[in-house]
Structures
1.
Amino acid sequence: MSKSVENLEKVKKMGNLKLIIIVLLAVIFVGGTAFGYVVFFGSNSSSQAKESPEIYKMTLDTFTVNLSDMEYRRYLRTDITLEFFNEKAIEEAELKKHRVRDKIISILSHKSVSDFDSNQKLEKSRVELLGAVNEILGENSQIKALYFENFIIQ
């Protein structure tokens, strides 16, 4: 009879051990799920809201200009977006939009196809346009970037 009592005690200990392991695994699973939720959804959205500053931009009307290639009649068609540091600069650019467009047309119409045949040359033209536009807008209304949204040469 003492053997059956010992076996009964072993079974009770095994049952308690299994119960403890199951509870422990459940706690780990719930904790891991909660941690994952906070990492992927909670802190991520709040940090993105802090990190993404407001973007001030103005898209100019489409430019279509003849290029200065003498051998062939070529033209360039492009859409340009200007990005500003603040909203006040957009207001200033709206007032001087006619000057900005005229300057961009003047610069682009003096270019040839070879001025755009590599990324370095395109970037050089972008920097040239950026400087010319900033010269027109003045010190307090500078643009920080100039983007070509469409760029077609025919």
2.
Amino acid sequence: MLFGRFRVFASLAVVCAVALAMVPSGYAGAIVGGDAVPPGAYPWLVRFGNPGEGYCSGSLVSRRHIVTAAHCVSKNPDEPDDMYAYFLTETRPYTVRVVRTERHPWGVGDARNIDVAVLTLERRVRTTPVRLVPSGAMGPILPGSPLTVAGYGMTEHQRPERAHELTFTATYRCDQPGPQWFCADAPRPGTGVRPEDSGAPAFTRVGGGRERYMLVGTVSNHRDHHTWFANLAQPPVNDWIRFKIFGDFDAGQVDREPAAS
């Protein structure tokens, strides 16, 4: 996804500017070195934004809420700028308007830089959400753990591609220090995420059935094949997401339906 919507916080501004300069005008690939996601594989994987300001990726975590990167959305929660969510990996794709965006209060512009936001859709959707990692559960992101990352790109004709996915490996080495982050590497240099994959999910398989995947992080930024993610298991992040889902704002319109128990 293009970084058209974001207002980059200071600690990432230089890196993002360099990354953007590397993306040719009018063309941006999806996850480099990845495989196309088959229709219906990850129906909760979302592309959102608008043609004028660009797009990001995100994950449906309740029937009305999407988790993504804070730098993909405006600071004003009541001005989503004609933003739409596109459920393109569904066997029957559809689109829903985004009516509210909210950044984590310790997010962009704060020294703690929790790069997480929650989007509220105008209505419940039929898609089954992905499970959200339990608060404090760090096992899935221990160094050496395999993680799948999936996101969208744009073709040279500015039309959405199918999502692409790639297996990363969690690592001790991390360009962003602090428990609000974790890092993972793509298989080799020249592969991995690119700026247009902001907000894309990092997830792991936890079993069978409709809730067989668990969301553990969202793409924040990268340096070649080395990527840092917002750590969704960190209690200040995880608890805030669940608080939003349970109806902290617009309680009469928000479904009390978390994606994980």
3.
Amino acid sequence: MDRRITRMAKAQPMISSRMIKDSLELPVSTVTVRRRLCEANLLTRIPRKVPLLKKRHVQKKRLQFAKEHINWPKEKWRNILWTDESKVVLFGSKDLPHNTHHLTVLFSSFSAAYSFSRHLY
């Protein structure tokens, strides 16, 4: 039972203890599942909040970038990937997962709080 719980938590780091219990159909409480995860050093963490960027922050950074790269030759500019600022979701849906069991996972985003997406400029 312990290995199955640990394996599932490692395979799906955003899964909750209740979801682990239900999907494995375990005859134990969610507290027991959390205890087993804790014993395996897979502790629950909530993604940290990051400040939302305001329009003036983005404009300031773009102006700074433009001033720093004004003298670049055409060859360097050809190596830049230009996009239409589309949102790219890297890990599943854009909804907020509230649990993670990996201590090494660090959630940060500059587009919106608790977002797992990146904007390409």
